[in-house]
Write a structure and sequence with these properties.
Order of helices and strands: HHHHHHHHHHHHEHHEEEHEHEH
Strand content: 5-15%
Number of strands: 6
Number of domains: 3
Largest sheet: 6 strands, mixed
Oligomer: single chain
Structural class: alpha/beta
Number of helices: 17
Length: 410
Protein backbone atom coordinates (compact mmCIF):
# COMPACT_ATOMS: atom_id res chain seq x y z
CA UNK A 1 0.00 0.00 0.00
CA UNK A 2 1.30 3.37 -0.97
CA UNK A 3 1.98 5.58 1.99
CA UNK A 4 0.36 8.97 2.17
CA UNK A 5 2.83 11.81 1.95
CA UNK A 6 3.68 13.24 5.32
CA UNK A 7 2.39 16.69 6.10
CA UNK A 8 5.03 19.43 5.90
CA UNK A 9 7.04 19.78 9.07
CA UNK A 10 6.11 23.45 9.22
CA UNK A 11 2.47 22.50 9.82
CA UNK A 12 3.41 20.40 12.84
CA UNK A 13 5.65 23.19 14.08
CA UNK A 14 2.80 25.69 13.85
CA UNK A 15 0.37 23.32 15.55
CA UNK A 16 2.87 22.71 18.38
CA UNK A 17 3.25 26.44 18.85
CA UNK A 18 -0.54 26.86 18.99
CA UNK A 19 -0.94 24.08 21.55
CA UNK A 20 1.97 25.29 23.67
CA UNK A 21 0.56 28.81 23.61
CA UNK A 22 -2.88 27.57 24.62
CA UNK A 23 -1.47 25.44 27.44
CA UNK A 24 0.62 28.34 28.67
CA UNK A 25 -2.36 30.69 28.60
CA UNK A 26 -4.51 28.15 30.45
CA UNK A 27 -1.85 27.68 33.12
CA UNK A 28 -1.47 31.44 33.58
CA UNK A 29 -5.24 31.84 33.80
CA UNK A 30 -5.45 29.20 36.53
CA UNK A 31 -2.57 30.80 38.44
CA UNK A 32 -4.14 34.26 38.14
CA UNK A 33 -7.50 32.95 39.34
CA UNK A 34 -5.82 31.38 42.37
CA UNK A 35 -4.04 34.64 43.16
CA UNK A 36 -7.29 36.63 42.97
CA UNK A 37 -9.15 34.02 45.05
CA UNK A 38 -6.47 34.09 47.77
CA UNK A 39 -6.54 37.90 47.80
CA UNK A 40 -10.32 37.88 48.21
CA UNK A 41 -10.07 35.25 50.97
CA UNK A 42 -7.51 37.43 52.74
CA UNK A 43 -9.81 40.39 52.39
CA UNK A 44 -12.72 38.46 53.92
CA UNK A 45 -10.58 37.41 56.88
CA UNK A 46 -9.27 40.95 57.52
CA UNK A 47 -12.72 42.53 57.28
CA UNK A 48 -14.21 39.87 59.51
CA UNK A 49 -11.44 40.41 62.07
CA UNK A 50 -11.98 44.17 62.03
CA UNK A 51 -15.73 43.75 62.29
CA UNK A 52 -15.38 41.42 65.25
CA UNK A 53 -12.64 43.31 67.04
CA UNK A 54 -15.10 44.60 69.65
CA UNK A 55 -15.87 41.06 70.73
CA UNK A 56 -13.11 39.65 72.93
CA UNK A 57 -11.20 36.79 71.33
CA UNK A 58 -13.40 36.66 68.22
CA UNK A 59 -10.74 37.85 65.78
CA UNK A 60 -8.22 35.28 67.04
CA UNK A 61 -10.64 32.40 66.36
CA UNK A 62 -11.55 33.28 62.77
CA UNK A 63 -8.62 31.61 60.99
CA UNK A 64 -8.60 28.33 63.01
CA UNK A 65 -12.38 27.94 62.74
CA UNK A 66 -12.38 28.73 59.02
CA UNK A 67 -9.58 26.23 58.37
CA UNK A 68 -11.48 23.54 60.31
CA UNK A 69 -14.73 24.12 58.40
CA UNK A 70 -12.96 24.06 55.03
CA UNK A 71 -11.27 20.79 55.99
CA UNK A 72 -14.61 19.29 57.03
CA UNK A 73 -15.99 20.21 53.60
CA UNK A 74 -13.09 18.38 51.92
CA UNK A 75 -11.46 21.57 50.59
CA UNK A 76 -7.71 20.98 50.55
CA UNK A 77 -4.86 23.45 50.59
CA UNK A 78 -6.28 25.93 53.10
CA UNK A 79 -4.77 25.10 56.44
CA UNK A 80 -4.40 27.71 59.17
CA UNK A 81 -0.97 28.63 57.81
CA UNK A 82 -2.29 28.93 54.24
CA UNK A 83 -5.13 31.19 55.39
CA UNK A 84 -2.68 33.37 57.30
CA UNK A 85 -0.71 33.74 54.06
CA UNK A 86 -3.93 34.88 52.36
CA UNK A 87 -4.47 37.41 55.12
CA UNK A 88 -0.90 38.69 54.83
CA UNK A 89 -1.28 38.82 51.04
CA UNK A 90 -4.23 41.20 51.31
CA UNK A 91 -2.36 43.38 53.81
CA UNK A 92 0.80 43.45 51.64
CA UNK A 93 -1.10 44.13 48.40
CA UNK A 94 -4.18 46.13 49.42
CA UNK A 95 -4.74 47.44 45.86
CA UNK A 96 -3.88 44.30 43.89
CA UNK A 97 -6.93 44.33 41.56
CA UNK A 98 -6.63 48.07 40.95
CA UNK A 99 -7.84 51.15 42.78
CA UNK A 100 -11.29 51.28 41.20
CA UNK A 101 -12.21 47.69 42.00
CA UNK A 102 -10.74 47.95 45.50
CA UNK A 103 -12.76 51.07 46.21
CA UNK A 104 -15.95 49.42 45.02
CA UNK A 105 -15.29 46.31 47.09
CA UNK A 106 -14.49 48.28 50.21
CA UNK A 107 -17.43 50.61 49.89
CA UNK A 108 -19.80 47.72 48.98
CA UNK A 109 -21.63 50.18 46.76
CA UNK A 110 -20.67 51.43 43.34
CA UNK A 111 -23.00 54.43 43.65
CA UNK A 112 -20.94 55.84 46.54
CA UNK A 113 -17.85 56.19 44.36
CA UNK A 114 -16.58 59.76 43.92
CA UNK A 115 -17.93 61.52 40.80
CA UNK A 116 -19.96 58.40 40.01
CA UNK A 117 -17.18 57.15 37.74
CA UNK A 118 -16.21 53.81 39.26
CA UNK A 119 -19.31 51.84 38.35
CA UNK A 120 -19.15 53.15 34.80
CA UNK A 121 -15.45 52.38 34.45
CA UNK A 122 -15.84 48.87 35.85
CA UNK A 123 -18.69 48.06 33.52
CA UNK A 124 -16.65 49.24 30.56
CA UNK A 125 -13.54 47.31 31.61
CA UNK A 126 -15.42 44.05 31.97
CA UNK A 127 -17.22 42.01 29.34
CA UNK A 128 -19.77 41.10 32.01
CA UNK A 129 -22.23 43.95 32.56
CA UNK A 130 -23.29 42.41 35.88
CA UNK A 131 -20.06 43.41 37.64
CA UNK A 132 -21.62 46.60 38.97
CA UNK A 133 -24.57 44.65 40.37
CA UNK A 134 -22.26 42.03 41.91
CA UNK A 135 -20.15 44.71 43.59
CA UNK A 136 -23.28 46.11 45.19
CA UNK A 137 -23.90 42.74 46.85
CA UNK A 138 -22.78 41.61 50.25
CA UNK A 139 -19.17 40.63 50.96
CA UNK A 140 -19.43 36.85 50.25
CA UNK A 141 -20.77 37.58 46.77
CA UNK A 142 -17.43 39.17 45.91
CA UNK A 143 -15.93 35.69 45.81
CA UNK A 144 -17.84 35.10 42.56
CA UNK A 145 -16.10 38.06 40.91
CA UNK A 146 -12.85 36.32 40.00
CA UNK A 147 -13.41 36.23 36.19
CA UNK A 148 -14.71 39.80 36.16
CA UNK A 149 -11.82 41.08 38.24
CA UNK A 150 -9.27 39.38 35.96
CA UNK A 151 -10.97 40.87 32.88
CA UNK A 152 -11.12 44.34 34.41
CA UNK A 153 -7.49 44.26 35.53
CA UNK A 154 -6.29 43.43 32.02
CA UNK A 155 -7.54 46.81 30.86
CA UNK A 156 -5.41 48.69 33.40
CA UNK A 157 -1.82 49.74 32.90
CA UNK A 158 0.33 47.56 35.14
CA UNK A 159 2.61 48.90 37.84
CA UNK A 160 4.19 47.25 40.89
CA UNK A 161 1.63 46.29 43.51
CA UNK A 162 -1.02 45.34 40.95
CA UNK A 163 -2.04 41.94 39.63
CA UNK A 164 0.05 40.54 36.77
CA UNK A 165 -0.61 37.18 35.04
CA UNK A 166 3.11 36.33 35.01
CA UNK A 167 3.23 36.31 38.81
CA UNK A 168 1.87 33.14 40.37
CA UNK A 169 0.82 32.56 43.96
CA UNK A 170 4.29 31.08 44.59
CA UNK A 171 5.86 34.33 43.35
CA UNK A 172 3.66 36.40 45.65
CA UNK A 173 4.40 34.09 48.59
CA UNK A 174 8.09 34.90 48.15
CA UNK A 175 7.52 38.63 47.56
CA UNK A 176 5.48 38.99 50.75
CA UNK A 177 8.61 38.28 52.79
CA UNK A 178 10.12 41.59 51.67
CA UNK A 179 9.24 44.32 54.12
CA UNK A 180 10.29 47.25 51.94
CA UNK A 181 7.69 48.07 49.25
CA UNK A 182 10.46 49.62 47.11
CA UNK A 183 12.57 46.45 47.08
CA UNK A 184 9.46 44.33 46.55
CA UNK A 185 8.57 46.48 43.52
CA UNK A 186 12.04 45.89 42.06
CA UNK A 187 11.66 42.11 42.25
CA UNK A 188 8.15 42.28 40.77
CA UNK A 189 9.48 44.21 37.75
CA UNK A 190 12.48 41.93 37.27
CA UNK A 191 10.38 38.75 37.63
CA UNK A 192 8.11 39.96 34.83
CA UNK A 193 10.79 41.39 32.55
CA UNK A 194 13.17 38.45 32.95
CA UNK A 195 10.40 35.83 33.03
CA UNK A 196 11.76 34.38 36.28
CA UNK A 197 10.21 31.24 37.63
CA UNK A 198 9.42 31.32 41.33
CA UNK A 199 12.58 29.34 42.12
CA UNK A 200 14.79 31.87 40.31
CA UNK A 201 13.02 34.72 42.12
CA UNK A 202 13.79 33.00 45.44
CA UNK A 203 17.44 32.64 44.48
CA UNK A 204 17.79 36.27 43.41
CA UNK A 205 16.18 37.41 46.64
CA UNK A 206 18.44 35.18 48.73
CA UNK A 207 21.52 36.52 46.94
CA UNK A 208 20.31 40.11 47.62
CA UNK A 209 20.32 41.15 43.98
CA UNK A 210 18.76 44.54 44.77
CA UNK A 211 21.41 45.36 47.37
CA UNK A 212 24.24 44.25 45.09
CA UNK A 213 23.00 46.48 42.29
CA UNK A 214 22.30 49.32 44.72
CA UNK A 215 25.91 49.48 45.93
CA UNK A 216 27.10 51.73 43.10
CA UNK A 217 23.99 53.92 42.87
CA UNK A 218 23.03 57.22 44.40
CA UNK A 219 19.60 58.02 45.85
CA UNK A 220 18.06 58.66 42.42
CA UNK A 221 19.57 55.42 41.15
CA UNK A 222 18.00 53.51 44.02
CA UNK A 223 14.57 54.89 43.22
CA UNK A 224 15.01 53.99 39.54
CA UNK A 225 15.70 50.42 40.60
CA UNK A 226 12.45 50.41 42.55
CA UNK A 227 10.37 51.90 39.73
CA UNK A 228 12.09 50.71 36.52
CA UNK A 229 14.00 47.59 37.55
CA UNK A 230 17.58 46.94 36.43
CA UNK A 231 18.18 49.37 33.56
CA UNK A 232 21.44 49.15 31.62
CA UNK A 233 22.45 52.60 30.43
CA UNK A 234 26.22 52.59 30.90
CA UNK A 235 28.97 49.98 31.43
CA UNK A 236 28.95 50.40 35.21
CA UNK A 237 25.30 49.24 35.24
CA UNK A 238 26.17 45.84 33.76
CA UNK A 239 28.39 44.23 36.37
CA UNK A 240 27.60 43.11 39.92
CA UNK A 241 30.01 42.69 42.77
CA UNK A 242 30.04 40.03 44.06
CA UNK A 243 28.75 37.46 41.59
CA UNK A 244 27.13 34.53 43.37
CA UNK A 245 27.71 31.26 41.48
CA UNK A 246 26.72 28.68 44.09
CA UNK A 247 24.92 26.68 41.37
CA UNK A 248 28.30 25.34 40.18
CA UNK A 249 28.54 23.08 43.22
CA UNK A 250 32.29 23.66 43.49
CA UNK A 251 34.01 23.59 46.89
CA UNK A 252 35.95 26.62 48.03
CA UNK A 253 39.52 25.36 47.86
CA UNK A 254 42.96 26.73 47.09
CA UNK A 255 43.35 23.76 44.73
CA UNK A 256 40.61 25.04 42.42
CA UNK A 257 42.07 25.66 38.97
CA UNK A 258 40.78 28.09 36.38
CA UNK A 259 40.09 25.37 33.80
CA UNK A 260 37.73 23.59 36.20
CA UNK A 261 35.96 26.86 37.03
CA UNK A 262 35.56 27.62 33.33
CA UNK A 263 34.23 24.12 32.59
CA UNK A 264 31.68 24.42 35.40
CA UNK A 265 30.49 27.81 34.12
CA UNK A 266 30.02 26.48 30.59
CA UNK A 267 28.15 23.43 31.91
CA UNK A 268 25.82 25.76 33.81
CA UNK A 269 25.72 28.47 31.16
CA UNK A 270 22.01 29.23 31.45
CA UNK A 271 22.23 29.89 35.19
CA UNK A 272 25.47 31.83 34.71
CA UNK A 273 23.77 34.11 32.17
CA UNK A 274 20.93 34.71 34.63
CA UNK A 275 23.44 35.68 37.30
CA UNK A 276 25.36 37.97 34.92
CA UNK A 277 22.14 39.81 34.17
CA UNK A 278 20.18 41.02 31.16
CA UNK A 279 21.72 41.47 27.73
CA UNK A 280 24.51 38.87 27.73
CA UNK A 281 24.88 36.53 24.72
CA UNK A 282 27.59 33.84 24.85
CA UNK A 283 29.99 33.72 21.88
CA UNK A 284 33.12 31.71 22.65
CA UNK A 285 35.45 30.19 25.21
CA UNK A 286 39.27 30.19 25.09
CA UNK A 287 39.24 32.64 22.18
CA UNK A 288 42.78 32.73 20.78
CA UNK A 289 44.51 36.02 20.01
CA UNK A 290 47.81 35.85 18.10
CA UNK A 291 50.27 38.73 18.25
CA UNK A 292 53.52 38.25 16.30
CA UNK A 293 53.52 34.52 16.97
CA UNK A 294 52.55 34.77 20.64
CA UNK A 295 49.20 33.26 21.57
CA UNK A 296 46.82 34.62 24.21
CA UNK A 297 43.50 33.12 25.24
CA UNK A 298 40.40 34.97 26.44
CA UNK A 299 38.52 32.66 28.82
CA UNK A 300 34.96 33.68 27.87
CA UNK A 301 33.62 36.04 25.22
CA UNK A 302 30.11 37.54 25.32
CA UNK A 303 28.26 40.18 23.34
CA UNK A 304 26.05 42.60 25.22
CA UNK A 305 22.90 43.20 23.21
CA UNK A 306 21.88 46.38 25.08
CA UNK A 307 25.23 48.18 25.06
CA UNK A 308 26.13 46.73 21.62
CA UNK A 309 29.64 45.70 22.59
CA UNK A 310 31.90 42.72 23.27
CA UNK A 311 32.41 41.69 26.88
CA UNK A 312 35.57 39.71 27.65
CA UNK A 313 35.72 37.67 30.86
CA UNK A 314 38.94 36.46 32.48
CA UNK A 315 38.74 33.95 35.34
CA UNK A 316 41.12 33.97 38.31
CA UNK A 317 41.04 31.55 41.24
CA UNK A 318 43.09 33.88 43.41
CA UNK A 319 43.36 37.51 44.43
CA UNK A 320 43.49 40.03 41.61
CA UNK A 321 46.92 41.50 40.71
CA UNK A 322 47.90 44.49 38.60
CA UNK A 323 49.36 42.06 36.05
CA UNK A 324 45.87 40.60 35.57
CA UNK A 325 44.55 44.08 34.81
CA UNK A 326 47.34 44.67 32.31
CA UNK A 327 46.51 41.40 30.56
CA UNK A 328 42.84 42.34 30.31
CA UNK A 329 43.83 45.76 28.97
CA UNK A 330 45.66 43.97 26.15
CA UNK A 331 42.57 41.88 25.33
CA UNK A 332 40.25 44.89 25.33
CA UNK A 333 42.57 47.00 23.14
CA UNK A 334 42.95 44.12 20.67
CA UNK A 335 39.20 43.66 20.33
CA UNK A 336 38.67 47.39 19.92
CA UNK A 337 41.18 47.53 17.05
CA UNK A 338 40.72 44.14 15.36
CA UNK A 339 37.21 42.80 16.10
CA UNK A 340 35.06 45.83 16.72
CA UNK A 341 32.88 46.82 13.75
CA UNK A 342 30.70 49.78 12.82
CA UNK A 343 27.92 50.17 15.38
CA UNK A 344 29.78 48.36 18.18
CA UNK A 345 30.49 50.18 21.41
CA UNK A 346 33.86 50.06 23.20
CA UNK A 347 34.83 46.57 24.35
CA UNK A 348 34.41 45.85 28.07
CA UNK A 349 36.54 43.58 30.22
CA UNK A 350 35.46 41.76 33.39
CA UNK A 351 37.93 39.97 35.66
CA UNK A 352 36.32 37.49 38.04
CA UNK A 353 38.50 36.84 41.08
CA UNK A 354 38.24 35.60 44.65
CA UNK A 355 39.40 38.92 46.13
CA UNK A 356 40.80 42.27 45.08
CA UNK A 357 42.63 45.28 46.41
CA UNK A 358 40.31 48.14 45.49
CA UNK A 359 43.00 50.78 45.90
CA UNK A 360 45.46 48.90 43.66
CA UNK A 361 42.75 48.44 41.04
CA UNK A 362 41.93 52.15 41.11
CA UNK A 363 45.54 53.26 40.68
CA UNK A 364 46.25 50.67 37.99
CA UNK A 365 43.26 51.64 35.87
CA UNK A 366 43.41 55.38 36.50
CA UNK A 367 40.50 57.80 37.03
CA UNK A 368 37.39 57.81 34.93
CA UNK A 369 37.93 54.57 33.00
CA UNK A 370 34.77 52.75 31.94
CA UNK A 371 36.14 49.69 30.14
CA UNK A 372 37.66 47.24 32.65
CA UNK A 373 35.91 45.99 35.76
CA UNK A 374 36.72 43.50 38.49
CA UNK A 375 34.16 41.51 40.47
CA UNK A 376 34.57 38.93 43.17
CA UNK A 377 32.72 35.67 42.93
CA UNK A 378 31.37 33.48 45.70
CA UNK A 379 30.96 29.72 45.34
CA UNK A 380 28.28 29.51 48.00
CA UNK A 381 25.06 31.37 48.61
CA UNK A 382 25.96 33.72 51.46
CA UNK A 383 23.67 34.28 54.38
CA UNK A 384 21.63 37.47 54.16
CA UNK A 385 23.40 38.83 57.24
CA UNK A 386 26.89 38.22 55.79
CA UNK A 387 26.12 39.76 52.43
CA UNK A 388 24.24 42.69 53.96
CA UNK A 389 27.18 43.39 56.30
CA UNK A 390 29.61 43.37 53.37
CA UNK A 391 27.39 45.73 51.37
CA UNK A 392 27.09 48.10 54.34
CA UNK A 393 30.89 48.16 54.68
CA UNK A 394 31.30 49.13 51.04
CA UNK A 395 28.49 51.69 51.14
CA UNK A 396 30.15 53.31 54.15
CA UNK A 397 33.19 54.10 51.99
CA UNK A 398 31.04 55.85 49.39
CA UNK A 399 28.91 58.99 49.51
CA UNK A 400 26.10 58.18 51.92
CA UNK A 401 22.76 57.44 50.28
CA UNK A 402 19.43 56.85 51.91
CA UNK A 403 18.06 53.40 51.20
CA UNK A 404 14.26 53.25 51.62
CA UNK A 405 13.31 52.17 55.11
CA UNK A 406 11.67 48.80 55.55
CA UNK A 407 7.98 48.85 56.34
CA UNK A 408 7.14 47.34 59.69
CA UNK A 409 6.03 43.73 59.44
CA UNK A 410 2.36 43.32 60.13
Amino acid sequence: MKKKPAAPASVFDRVQVILASAQGFAARSVNTAQVVANWLIGREIVEEEQGGARRAGYAQRIVPELALRLKEQGIKGYSEQALRFCRQFYLSYPDLPGAQICYALRSKSVETAPDGEIGYALRNQSSDSNIGHALRGQSPESLTLIPQIIEAVRAEEWKPGLLHPSLSWTHYRALMRLRSPHIRAFYEIESIQQNWRARELERQMQSLLFERLAKSRDKKGLMRLATKGHEVQQPADVFKDPLVIEFLGLPESHRLVESRLEEALISNLQQFLLELGKGFAFLARQQRLTLEGDHYYVDLVFYHTLLKCYVLVDLKTRKLTHQDIGQMQLYVNYYDEERRTTGDGPTLGLILCTDQNDTAVRYTLGPGQQKIFASRYQLHLPSEADLAAEIRRELASLTPVSVPKARAKR
